[in-house]
Write a structure and sequence with these properties.
This protein is of the alpha+beta class and about 290 residues long. It has twelve helices and 14 strands. It has three domains: about 45 residues, 2-Layer Sandwich (Uridine Diphospho-n-acetylenolpyruvylglucosamine Reductase, domain 2), CATH 3.30.43; about 120 residues, Uridine Diphospho-n-acetylenolpyruvylglucosamine Reductase, domain 3, CATH 3.30.465.10; about 110 residues, CO dehydrogenase flavoprotein, C-terminal domain (Enolase-like, domain 1), CATH 3.30.390.50. The chain has a five-stranded antiparallel beta sheet. β4 and β5 form a beta hairpin. α11 runs antiparallel to α12. The longest helix has 22 residues.
């Protein structure tokens, strides 16, 4: 289907973009457009004004600090994430996820900010950003504010970005020796995920290895990323062994009621989320210093 008639502007600065958003109640930000345009073509949503930020250099950057933290502009594309050697040095999972996203055409246009702001339960970056404890910088008429990733994703297609605002950047804290595991079960390499899990693990010094702290976040099982708090509590201070990880991961999806669709039943998603959690945890432990 063709797009319905809508107004379109390409602002020359962030200030102009914010002014355009504030001036029209039905305005939406257009970055890569890989999801939004399809939604509009299928008449699943309607907008009065598209504000194209894809060419704003102030929203398209990767800055890596000496302490290992990184700041990424919201309009940075998957391809730019994939190719950034400095980013891969401090946060390799960000680039790895970008490299595995669908095909080259999508990677050249799709953006990390668009992926986060669309907040589809099957989107690949939301659970990773929550697990990394990223900070989301939101710009609006009143200035900028920072929201922890764990509070940014509010539910199905809902985020903390309000009317007249846009996501400006994402800041990743340094890993400081922690390992990260990212596992996703897909029907095919270019399909949506059925179940996803991301693990962040810091191990204590010495042998035998023990887990000092852990974060486990599930995707595709609810409207927003879900912290597996029971799994995290059982892992903290425990052995970094496969047996201990198996026991903790079995609790990851307890109490969840994932949706069923043509691809998988809710019960299957729940079981596979626990499997993905175990695999992600073992990967994270293996990558921890």
């Amino acid at each position: 289907m063709l797009l319905a008639a809508t107004e379109y502007v390409r602002p020359a600065s962030l200030e102009e973009a914010l002014a355009a958003l504030a001036g029209t109640a039905g305005a939406r930000v257009l970055a890569g457009g890989q999801t939004l345009i399809n939604v509009l073509k299928h008449r699943a949503a309607a907008v009065e004004l598209l504000v194209d930020i894809s060419r704003l250099e102030e929203l398209r950057f990767i800055e890596v600090a000496s302490d290992g933290s990184a700041r990424i502009g919201a309009a940075t594309t998957y391809l730019e994430l994939e190719r950034s050697a400095p980013l891969r040095a401090v946060a390799p999972t960000i680039g790895e996820v970008a490299a595995g996203t669908v095909d080259r055409q999508v990677r050249a246009r799709g953006t990390i900010g668009g992926n986060a702001c669309f907040a589809d339960p099957a989107s690949n970056y939301p659970p990773l950003l929550v697990a990394l404890e990223a900070s989301m910088e939101i710009a609006g008429p009143a200035g900028t504010r920072s929201v922890p990733a764990g509070e940014f994703f509010l539910g199905l297609y809902r985020t903390a970005v309000g009317a007249g605002e846009l996501l400006r950047s994402i800041t990743l804290p340094p890993l400081d020796g922690a390992g990260v595991g990212y596992r996703s079960l897909q029907l095919a390499a270019d399909s949506w995920s059925i179940a996803r899990a991301v693990a962040w693990v810091r191990c204590a010094a010495g042998e035998p290895r023990t887990i000092e702290a852990a974060r486990v976040v599930l995707g595709c099982v609810a409207g927003a990323p879900v912290r597996a708090s029971a799994t995290e509590a059982l892992l903290s201070g425990g052995a970094a062994s496969e047996e201990a990880v198996s026991a903790a991961a079995s609790l990851a999806s307890e109490g969840l009621e994932p949706p069923s669709d043509v691809h998988a039943s809710g019960s299957y998603r729940r079981e596979m989320a626990a499997v993905m959690a175990k695999r992600a945890l073992l990967d994270a432990i293996g990558g921890a210093a």
